[in-house]
Amino acid sequence: MQGAGICGDLVIVDRSLYAEHGDIVIAALNTEPVCKRLHMRGNEIILQSENPKYPARHVMEGDELVIGGVVKYSVRDHDKA
Question: Which of 25, 59, 73, 80 lies 20 to 30 Å from 41, alpha-carbon distance?
């Protein structure tokens, strides 16, 4: 999630929120864990990477998508070690 400013950070996830269009989510797509921005357009669901090196993941019919929560904060370690 480099494009969202999350790179090696600890993320704080709110599992009680309903994920909406544009949210950054922690999810599992066909059991593969992902942290991506959720895009919903009509019946189309896309998990969009903020890093241009990684393609968007289109959720297709038959795929299993489980959203674990919405990323609310990130914490960065500034230790020099």
Answer: 73
Give the list of residues 6+ apart from residue 74 with CB closer than 8 angstroms, or none: 5, 6, 9, 10, 11, 12
Q: What is the rounded CA–CA span in Å between residue 16 and residue 35?
A: 17
Dig out the tokens for 12 from the structure.
């704080």
Main-chain phi, psi angles of 39, to 5 degrees: -120, 125
Three-state DSSP class for 78? coil
The set of residues, in sequence order, having a beta carbon less than 8 Å from that of 7 and lying 6+ positions away, is: 1
Contact 56, 47 (CB under 8 A): yes
Q: Tell me the pLDDT tens digit for each residue of 46-56.
A: 999 988 888 99
Record the pTM. 0.83
